[in-house]
Amino acid sequence: MPIGPLIIDLSGLSLCLDEKRLLETPVIGGVILFSRNFRNRKQLMTLVSEIRDIRPEILICVDQEGGRVQRFIKDFSPIPPMQTLGNFLGTPLEKYIKDCGWLMACELIACDIDFSFAPVLDLDLNTCEVIADRSFSENPGKTVEAASFFISGMKEAGMASTGKHFPGHGGVEVDSHIETPVDARSIKDLLSNDLIPFAKLSASLDAIMPAHIIYPQVDKNAVGFSKLWINKILRQDLKFDGVIFSDDLSMKGADVAGDYISKAKSALNAGCDMILVCNNRKGVIEIIDYLALTNWTSSLRLSRMKNRKKLSWKQLVSDNRWISTKAFFESISTD
């Protein structure tokens, strides 16, 4: 069955009857899990199995970046903020950047989860509160280097990578969860700074997620709804051929595009392969009903996001690399 263009969230620790019926809808191609869907690893794997029983081909994902954005904590290894990993560059600890990407990915794959929306490629130190230490560095060269190691670890584990938030969220103070940020910089300024990680890593990344930010010197539309940003700059200029995910259309930063149907239509028409709608079931239903009336097609790119290796938790916990890497990150998490 083709993978539909819509990712939705779930309400709790197991599927309710309405969600079981909803997942049978072909337009739904993915499920994103949050902390409210997690009690422990055993419960998580039962939930994943419930989803797979209904739709084996569906993409299951999570934000398991590390630091303050780690949805699964109990029974999982602690993943530090990416800024901590960026600080490892040029030190004897540098190898742990790649190991961290591998560790995060292996643990999710062992639970039959396809991918985490990672890594963050925004440049920041402390300008943007919602990014801050989620960023490897405010330096584009260091961000490229650290992210390359992290992506390599993810790939070794069998997980696709997603760079976010294109073309860079670290230059604005406003949180796009709350309102739409506006960045007055020119495309020339962005190309010499925030866009560098996306440009340098475009061939390595499997997916990219645009930001809900308006750059009025480039286009009047927010990036995720802009054909100029997605088709011209990202696809043609940067030669990116991977999956493009919208950021969550329920975020206030997306409201500039209108109601849920308008947001979905604009994001897909701009060139997004898949759209996310979280924490608003009414919006999900509206989009499903709208897409049912269209000749929606599945992007062939989406199959690239499936996990690429099969690994049981029993196999993982007997792996010497997992044992030593987990021990290292546990040791620094208590410092």
Layout of strands and helices, then pairs:
Elements: E1 6-9, H1 17-23, E2 28-33, H2 41-54, E3 59-62, E4 64-66, E5 69-70, H3 82-86, H4 95-109, E6 115-116, H5 140-157, E7 162-166, H6 187-191, H7 196-201, E8 207-210, H8 227-237, E9 243-248, H9 260-270, E10 274-277, H10 281-292, H11 313-317, H12 320-333
Parallel strand pairs: 1-2, 1-10, 2-3, 3-6, 7-8, 8-9, 9-10
Antiparallel strand pairs: 4-5
Report on the structure:
It is a single chain. The chain is α/β, with parallel strands linked by helices. Helices cover 37% and strands 12% of the residues. It contains twelve helices and ten strands. The protein has helices spanning 17-23, 41-54, 82-86, 95-109, 140-157, 187-191, 196-201, 227-237, 260-270, 281-292, 313-317, 320-333; strands at residues 6-9, 28-33, 59-62, 64-66, 69-70, 115-116, 162-166, 207-210, 243-248, 274-277. The protein has an eight-stranded parallel sheet. Strands 4-5 form a two-stranded antiparallel sheet. Helix 8 links the parallel strand 8 (207-210) and strand 9. The chain is globular and about 50 Å long. It starts with 5 loop residues before the first strand and ends with a helix. The mean pLDDT is 94.
